[in-house]
Write a structure and sequence with these properties.
alpha/beta, eight-stranded parallel β-barrel, globular, binds beta-D-galactopyranose
Length: 637
């Protein structure tokens, strides 16, 4: 795999005589890719089709030697569209239609809007699908951005009823699966079923869970419609640009239809918005660098979503406009984020955006260029990476020694019934990821459908509320350590407590007899250090006790055959102890990395990545502030 840089460009924002100068400058600084088109529908079709400007933009960029990523424009239907199917807007949970005047103002379930999308994508793919400069497609833009997956519109309600009828066949099966005898919620027919909003108190969790599955499937179908049209007209790979911590749809399901996964990385905005739940102290310390694990987590996640092929489609190049605070990155960070993406297997990193727009919503969002065309601070760092890439060898991300299972349905289950304030599956999975990284481990994130666990020294599945029989069978083939819990195998697929009590997984001879959720400020100390917090299970059975509370209550138990069940949410110290115990016999070298320093290996390189604002010494090397050190590693033969 080679590595390359690119940029997001909006020719429709600039006078046409500027395009050749822009293209020449992009090529000169060493960019290979340019993404265009994703918000251009009102220019492509201002009532009448008008492809001329886009044809010319293709020519100008191609003449400069650039390769094009073409976005379908369906995230921004033009205003006139609303006069055709006026009911195409998504509705919020309060039952209000969302308005025109920004973007993503459509409901995934609206058949009429989907027809319009199919029409414009067909025309676009017919026109550019075989263009020699076309390198890749991007469908739509950031599904889920601005909270746009769950729609409570009449179109969604009708589609949900049809989805339920397909899933259950007859209404009695649905009533039984949901437990509708409780509170007399029994339905006589599918067309009586509403969406799970505006109920007097909490709706049935099984109802909510099916609505979440349905809503995710609507995104999959919407995307697939475009993929099938493009695929019939183009050989270029197809991708979508995902986001940081968006969990409203199953990215693995959407990604299954496409060749490449890309994502949009805004490290400073993400941390300040609280997406990785950084503490206030951390937010202060890393305000200009970002959370040292958040980007890595998503690189690893999207490498899996893209079947090994991932890009960063939008990389923050300077201050953004949308977080509570929008500082400039520390000098070095734009280069660091770029190399970090490559260290995690990214094939390309594209900066958002070429030139800062002097108008509209994002006028205070930096680009590589200032609005007056002078280079902004990020320009020189992008240029420096482009120079470094000229001599960089071909690489392969390779396989990591440990796997972390990540599951969107588990997130929906926790969200549907968290059993305590603010308890989220994403946080539990992410904290496990962080703790593994502090030990210096490279990690593969894998979906529940993964089938080859045999090559991992250890597999972690915290919080996987439902474990399918297929996954349990796959994990039985894993000769390494398998660590599950808390709340793993705690629910059936129908959102009920399993008959034999959790964890409902063969091979784990332990029973969760009771669950408590406790306040973060009343942790339960563990014997030997660390604490159980937030979620605490009472465990019965199991084998050797690895970790116990001060009162002797078991917290982590060895269940035989390298199976470990952890019955609590652990604080950082407890998590570190648990991981070291679980990995003690794995043969993996476990480091104790200083705050801010991370390490990531590809098949042939080791990258030391210092998110700290000061240089750091580690194992005989010094890594500069906001700097990356690349070393060759011996290739195993
Ligand atoms: C992304 C989006 C871009 C732009 C950017 C600003 O979420 O895809 O279009 O809005 O954020 O940071």
């Amino acid at each position: 795999m080679t590595r390359a840089l690119g940029v997001c460009y909006y020719p429709e924002h600039w006078p046409e005589d500027q395009w050749p100068r822009d293209a020449a400058r992009m090529a000169e600084m060493g960019l290979r890719y340019v993404r265009i088109g994703e918000f251009s529908w009102s220019r492509i079709e201002p009532q009448q089709l008008n492809w001329g400007w886009l044809d010319r933009a293709f020519d100008v960029l191609a003449d400069a030697g650039l390769q094009i990523v073409l976005g379908t424009p369906t995230a921004t239907p033009p205003r006139w569209m609303l006069d055709k199917p006026p009911d195409m807007l998504a509705w919020d949970a309060e039952g209000r239609p969302r308005a025109f005047g920004s973007r993503r103002h459509y409901c995934f379930s609206h058949a009429g809007y989907k027809e319009e999308c199919a029409r414009i994508v067909t025309l676009m793919a017919d026109r550019y699908g075989r263009h020699p400069a076309l390198a890749m497609w991007q469908t739509d833009n950031e599904y889920g951005c601005h909270d746009t997956v769950l729609s409570y519109s009449p179109a969604a309600r009708t589609a949900f009823q049809a989805w339920l009828a397909r899933r259950y066949g007859d209404i009695d099966a649905l009533n039984a699966a949901w437990g509708n005898v409780f509170w007399s919620m029994v339905y006589d027919s599918f067309d009586q079923i509403g969406l799970p909003n505006l109920t007097v108190t909490e709706p049935n969790p099984a109802h909510v869970m099916d609505f979440r599955r349905f809503s995710s499937d609507q995104v999959v179908d919407f995307n697939r419609l475009q993929v099938e049209i493009i695929r019939a007209r183009s050989d270029a790979p197809i991708s979508h640009n995902y986001m940081g911590r968006v969990t409203e749809f199953d990215h693995f399901d959407v990604g299954a239809d496409m060749e490449v996964a890309t994502w949009d990385s805004y490290p400073l905005g993400f941390m300040d918005e609280g997406r990785g739940k950084a503490t206030e102290a951390m937010k202060r310390e890393y305000a200009r660098q970002g959370d040292p694990d958040f980007q890595a987590f998503h690189h690893d996640l999207y490498r899996a979503v893209g079947h090994g092929r991932a890009w960063v489609m939008e990389q923050q190049p300077g201050p953004v406009n949308w977080a509570p605070h929008n500082p400039a990155p520390l000098p070095g960070m734009v280069r660091l984020w770029t190399w970090e993406a490559f260290a995690h297997g990214a094939e390309a990193v594209c900066y958002f955006r070429w030139r800062q727009a002097p108008f509209a919503q994002e006028q205070n969002h930096a680009g590589l260029l200032r609005p007056d065309d002078a280079p902004a601070a990020g320009f020189a760092e992008a240029e420096a990476v482009a120079k470094e890439l000229r001599d960089a060898p071909e690489v392969s991300a390779g396989q990591a020694p440990v796997a972390l299972i990540f599951d969107y349905q588990a997130e929906w289950m926790w969200e549907t019934q968290p059993q305590g304030q603010g308890l989220r599956y994403f946080d539990l999975a992410y904290q496990t990821y962080k703790a593994l990284r502090r030990l210096g481990l490279s990690i593969d994130i894998v979906p529940v459908s993964h089938t080859d666990f045999a090559s991992y020294a250890a597999v972690f599945a915290p919080g996987l509320a439902h474990v399918s029989a297929d996954l349990a069978a796959e994990l039985r083939c894993c000769p390494g350590t398998v660590v599950m819990g808390p709340r793993t195998g705690a629910l059936t697929a129908d959102f009920a407590i399993p008959a034999t009590l959790p964890p409902d997984i063969a091979g784990f001879g332990v029973t969760v007899a009771r669950v408590e959720t406790i306040r973060a400020d009343t942790p339960r100390a563990l014997q030997g250090g660390g604490a159980a917090t937030l979620w605490v299970e009472t465990l019965e059975g199991g084998g050797d006790v690895l970790l116990a509370c001060d009162d002797g209550a078991p917290v982590a138990v060895e269940c035989g055959g390298g199976r470990i069940y952890v019955g609590a949410w652990l604080d950082a110290a407890g998590q570190d102890r648990m991981l070291r115990l679980a990995l003690a016999e794995s043969g993996l070298p476990l480091l104790d990395l200083p705050e801010g320093l991370r390490v990531r290996e590809t098949e042939t390189e080791r990258f030391w990545i210092n998110y700290g604002a000061q240089p750091v010494q580690f194992a005989g090397r010094e890594i500069g502030a906001a700097d990356v050190l690349r070393e060759g590693v011996e290739v195993a033969v």
